[in-house]
Design brief:
The chain has 122 residues and is mainly alpha-helical. Helices cover 53% and strands 0% of the residues. It has helices at 2-9, 25-42, 47-58, 64-71, 73-86, 99-103. The protein is globular, with a radius of gyration of 16 Å.
Length: 122
């Protein structure tokens, strides 16, 4: 309550959430990043098509794979593994067996510093 008041006094919009892994934003965001990787692994669409679809179709400023690369693929993996240990019954928090293999084939990506996630050849 004190933090909510403090945030409002700073002119910020505040939200309230119980203490749960990821709170609201990251709890919704990180599983969607993992699902984008699973779609890529299954060959549903290319990196560019997944990212373009979410930018245009959902109004996101960047696609989920570009965002995962921006955040750091190692960070996304670490978060998913930690949450899966705390909430193993939640399937959305599981990363695929191939997550590391798919995400860390860096030779086919631009560098993280370029903030661009490009096609992974199959």
């Amino acid at each position: 309550s004190t933090l909510l008041t403090f945030g409002r006094e700073l002119g910020k919009t505040t939200v309230e959430c119980s203490d749960t892994p990821g709170f609201i934003v990251n709890r919704l965001l990180v599983p969607s990043l993992a699902e984008a990787v699973r779609m890529l692994e299954r060959g549903v669409a290319t990196v560019e098509d997944i990212d373009t679809a979410m930018r245009l179709g959902a109004g996101h400023p960047m696609g989920p794979l570009q965002l995962a690369d921006y955040v750091g693929l190692d960070t996304v993996l670490f978060i998913l593994q930690g949450w899966h240990e705390k909430i193993p019954e939640c399937g959305a928090l599981q990363c695929s067996r191939n997550f590391k293999k798919t995400c860390f084939r860096r030779e086919t990506w631009k560098t993280k510093q370029e903030k661009d996630f490009i096609s992974i050849s199959n």
